Amino acid sequence: MADYVSDQKVFAFLKEKGVHFEAAHQVRVFAGGRTRQFATAEAGPVNAEGDSVLHIAARENYMEEVKRLNRANANFEAENGAGNTPLMIAAVRGHFELVEYLVKHGVHINRVHKSGSTAVSLAVWKNHTPISLFLIGRGADINNCDEFGDIPLIDASKHGEAKVTYALIQRRSPLNHRNKKGQTALMLAAGGGHEDCVLLLRSAGADASLKDAGGRTAADYAELPKIKVALTKTGLKPLPMLRAPLPVNDPSVSGDPSIVAAARTGDLKKLTELLDAKADLEIRNPVRIDRINSEPLTLQICFSLWLSLCACLPLR
Fold first, then answer.
1. How confident is the model at residue 283 (pLDDT cuts 50, 70, 90)?
2. Do residues 241 and 173 share a domain?
3. Which of 174, 190, 235, 240 could make an S-S bridge to 222, C-beta 3.0–4.6 Å?
4. What is the number of domains present in the chain?
5. What is the model's pTM?
């Protein structure tokens, strides 16, 4: 099936990005009320890197083209030649609105790259804090290890991302996880001179006595005096740990977001828990919203079920 590009600027943009256009396929460009015909690329790879038009649009943050491709039933889970999905590309590039759009339209949040990375680990690695927090809040897998054995908590602490470190601690990320070199988040936070992260990890109970593969402790990593003090500081108040948040927008066994599955099956207890946890009432199932026969969860469906059942059944 041919991709249809609905804007002449988009056509020129894609040509600049190295898209190879085949004469056998046409693109409709509407300009001045007239339809002009141009050749366009197929939905598959269109350049030497194995990118499709969707991958290019995700990389360059061309939101309107991504929306158009959604309406055209493009495969949002497709990998390019490097093994990256559109969500991974958007996350590593720091395109927050695009990441939000993709997730809200059913993209699998925990797809694993051949390197072991996921969208959230890539966002943390690149210091894109808003995207990292958004994906963590959406129930991204925070315990997945990349090719180096690092989990997001290690990367966040290593880069001094205190907000992300705190969010991961709240989600019960393993504090003393070791990567392939035996390093922990505390060691790398200390080595980077990130006092806030060191104090967060110590307050949460991270073990400062652990040694890496070379026999070094967090104190051995610390170069700044204030970090050495932070590592040995006593009387730290435990962090006010929140109840581990429900992965409210994670896919269920059926592939639907949890709240969609709960509404469909009439699971009142689960539905109530998800509503209390601020589940996204407008989240859709993985079927594209612009495709025929999609079954979006609507506010009316959720609340009608919830209110009707709450009126006659005890919740707890």
1. low
2. yes
3. 190
4. 2
5. 0.65
